[in-house]
């Protein structure tokens, strides 16, 4: 049973008995105390209490990360009550928000001001502070990960000090804090660079894996937000172009797609396949034929096109590799699956692209990148064996000089990250300086830094 505990000054309340679980229900924890502060002063009081009791502190956002990055048994802070829009600068096209605001809330506010984020991921039920902290990305070779849209931020360190960070103020810390992993401090506010509101036309059409891989450069130039979905156990590919347009909203997708009947049928068939794994290849091919064969179009407000409903739970891996290794990596994965026909590989393998940047722990640090996202659905919450597939995928990604998405499950440790990231020592030095006692660490981060 939940109960409340107050600090000695009676101003901030922590809840005991709280159970945290991520959206996919694959990871969870039971923090000793759970806090929902409403202002920076209350955050400072929580950190002071943590110092007094020698507790660690973990800030959680929307809880969508399919890993244990947000789990802790000590103090957990959710900033969902710190979700105000603090300033909209229409001339600079910038917005300053409290870190707890969900992108779904921010999208609606920006629309009213005739603004929009230039690129967002598939899910908007994520907090601004968390979405940058884990390296969330979308696709578009001329667009970086979402953290590249950060102009400045404020952060409270373990000592209670508030730091302002930008390219001109605390520039070294800013280079680290735009992808902070929750281990540098508590992000309080974020200023994001926006653009004028825009609509997107999405065109989805079927192709084959050889065609897409052999003409990858042409596809990258053909659309601002290009991605493709490969259906394992087949040559089938669905290509997606998303581009700004002046056209009015419309949809030319099939009724079957719009009604989501296909997804409910898919979950049922995937559940059946947990008893007969040989059904997975024909299921992959059937749903390509049913939902992705041919061509579909739609136009809508940008964030509605960027976003995608994840209707049921899943395990996820997502690594960034140098863009020139895209073809080799996919063909190696395809070849391994063909040699191991009993391995279950659900559709789709989603392939996206992002511009290089200078953020210290960005998977795109100093190189344009291809992200390869693999999934294993959990129909009706049932786990499907995925370890063999996961480990082989990681081996291929490491051979391709890959770096794992920080929000996704992976087996990497400090030894791996030192090799992967030129800026890892610099980031770790900044972390140790800002948090010398390790207040913001948890088991996930201990594997990263120790």
Can you offer a commentary on this structure?
There is one protein chain. It contains 15 helices and 23 strands. The chain is an alpha+beta fold. The protein folds into three domains: 3-78, Uridine Diphospho-n-acetylenolpyruvylglucosamine Reductase, domain 2; 85-196, Uridine Diphospho-n-acetylenolpyruvylglucosamine Reductase, domain 3 (2-Layer Sandwich); 199-404, FAD-linked oxidases, C-terminal domain (Vanillyl-alcohol Oxidase, Chain A, domain 3, 3-Layer(aba) Sandwich), CATH 3.40.462.10. The strands form six sheets. Strands 18-19-15-17-16-21-22-20-23 form a nine-stranded antiparallel beta sheet, with helices on both faces. Strands 8-9-13-11-12 form a five-stranded antiparallel beta sheet. The chain has a three-stranded parallel beta sheet with strand order 5-7-6, covered by helices on one side.
Summary of the model, kept short:
Helix content is 31%, strand content 26%. The protein has 450 residues and is an alpha+beta fold. The chain has three domains: 3-78, Uridine Diphospho-n-acetylenolpyruvylglucosamine Reductase, domain 2, CATH 3.30.43; 85-196, Uridine Diphospho-n-acetylenolpyruvylglucosamine Reductase, domain 3, CATH 3.30.465.10; 199-404, 3-Layer(aba) Sandwich (Vanillyl-alcohol Oxidase, Chain A, domain 3), CATH 3.40.462.10.
